[in-house]
Amino acid sequence: MKYPYYIAGMTGAMLIASSGAAAAGDAIHGQALYKTMCMACHSIDYNGVGPAHKGVFDRKAGSVADYSYSPAVKASGIVWSEKMLEQWLTNPEKLIPGQKMGYMVPSAQDRADLIAYLQQAAPAAK
User: Over the stretch 46-76, which tens digit does the pLDDT of each residue have?
Assistant: First the structure.
């Protein structure tokens, strides 16, 4: 009699676990998104319209050499982390009023994928 409850419990646990995995970032998809959504302005290795992303994690916002940041970004005091990048990609103007990036990523999964890609391609500076 307890066996059906065990099966139901295990099925529920697997569904919960798999739903968490779906929310995790997919770096391969993130790379494709980066190429289509970000590369018009950004590069991992060099400044363009936007600053280079190399070493973005644990870097203070507004600190890439030879890039002209808005005064708002320079004064923000933000250090880039997964959480901060999630907020930034959701709505840059809400996070840092007066910044100059005019692009948002509306999909939570796309943001997670982009962040996963950046963690691989542009890890924290050592």
Answer: 999 999 999 999 999 999 989 999 999 999 9
Residue with tokens 């940041």: 69
Tell the CATH superfamily of the 25-121 domain. Answer: Cytochrome c-like domain (1.10.760.10)
pTM score of the predicted model: 0.80
Nearest CA-CA partner of 118 in 20, 66, 43, 48: 43
Could you tell me if 40 and 49 are in contact, meaning their C-beta atoms sit under 8 angstroms apart?
yes
One-letter-per-residue 3-state SS of the chain:
CHHHHHHHHHHHHHHHHHHHHHHCCCHHHHHHHHHHHHCCCCCCCCCCCCCCCCCCCCCECCCCCCCCCCHHHHCCCCECCHHHHHHHHHCHHHHCCCCCCCCCCCCHHHHHHHHHHHHHHCCCCC
Instruction: For residue 60, list its beta bridge partners.
Output: 79
In the chain, domain spans: 25-121
Query: What are 79's strand-pairing partners?
Result: 60
